Amino acid sequence: MARKIGTESRHKYEENAQMFIISEMLKEARKEAKLTQEQLAEKAGTKKSYISRIENARGDIQLSTLIRIFEKGLNKKIGLTFL
């Protein structure tokens, strides 16, 4: 069933979908780098629990921390697109 654009349920659906995509990208990049969550957290200067929360699509993510995880922890650049 399609969700009507502009509704609260649609907004929540979009937010959850974006979080899922981010979580899958992080998991895939971490596994490609052959790092555990703990190793990635140490390299990025954050906690394993934070990496786990992102990978499980739970909780809010600070953009600055997400960038640090990818850039310092995984040596990858993040590109943002605003629509």
Automatic annotation (TrEMBL):
Coiled coil spans: none
CDD domains, sorted: HTH_XRE (cd00093)
A Pfam family matched in the record: HTH_3
GO molecular function: DNA binding; DNA-binding transcription factor activity
SUPFAM superfamilies linked: lambda repressor-like DNA-binding domains (SSF47413)
Record keywords, A-Z: DNA-binding
Domain HTH cro/C1-type: 26-69
This protein's name: Helix-turn-helix domain-containing protein
Lineage of origin: Bacteria, Pseudomonadati, Bacteroidota, Cytophagia, Cytophagales
